[in-house]
Amino acid sequence: MPNLKQLPPAPDLHTQVMLLTRPEQNVSGYEPFVDAAQFPFEPSPSEWSRVNAWWLAEASWLSYFHDDDTVKAIYRRRVQLECDCLNRAGTQCTIASSPGFAIVAFRGTQPDQWADIIADGRYLPITWQGVTVHRGFAAALDSVWDPLTAKLAALPAAARVWFTGHSLGAALATLAAYRLTRESAVYTFGSPLVGNEVFAGLFNARFSNRAMRYVNDHDVVTRVPPEEFAVPHGRYTHVDVLRWIDADGTIRPTSPPSPRFFSSVFGSMAILLHLLEHAESTGLPGLPDALRDHTPLHYVIHAWNDLARSR
């Protein structure tokens, strides 16, 4: 069995905050795509692929990096993929490709966007591509759509496009997969809710086992916006297929029967936002699980360990 990887051991509060809000700083010194040669990407698997889940978690984490040349060099050196980087109106993504497939990874939430992700009042729905979705997510994808599809159009016709992302990036990946007309798949990590029941139903009917949504235990972002904020257009509803990461790192197809939601411990999301913004001045020994479990590197390590245990 390949070696398991450990979460950063007992990091102090500052390190926890950096891992969550500044993943591009890579304060843990994590090396991306180690052992990728041993576990090559599977462009067209017949079922859920643990290998692809790990690759896509790595791509989601790497999309946070701000130095485009560094990102391109990592893809070229570690996995022999050519990479382009797009940045339009605050929406960023990387497109790593070979003749057989492409990985589009949307960058997730930046530090100055945390208030928008967690605060309760910014989730007005909008009719978009004939369905009802989160207004802000749709606008963010629209801003980068034309240059993104122009690059994807240059791929060989048989190349499957794999969308991925963490946090905000996961929401954009979900919408992009839905909007793209060519063959695609999507694995997301720590995604907020994206659209109402009709959107989720249409998405699920199209993607079946080509879509996986990973949730790390208490992760607060996977529980926003509140379901009722889609009213009068139904309720915000998650897309399938769920892959739940339990407290011990076990990945299972359903959530526990009585998950310990953040609200049962800390109350409103406004309290969590306050704790994040003022963590180091409040004297906390560490971030609450609802925030720490959203850390993008944790998703990468859990996806790798799931792959390693299966071998």
Main sheet characteristics:
8 strands, mixed
CATH class: Alpha Beta
Uncertain runs: 258-267
How many helices? The count is 11
Enter the CATH topology name: Rossmann fold
Report on the architecture of this protein:
The chain is an alpha/beta fold and 311 residues long. The chain has a single domain, classed as 3-Layer(aba) Sandwich (Rossmann fold). 36% of the residues lie in helices and 18% in strands. It has eleven helices and twelve strands. The strands form three sheets. It has an eight-stranded mixed β-sheet, with helices on both faces. It is globular. Mean pLDDT is 89; it is low at 258-267.
Question: What is shown here, in short?
Answer:
This protein is α/β, with parallel strands linked by helices and 311 residues long.
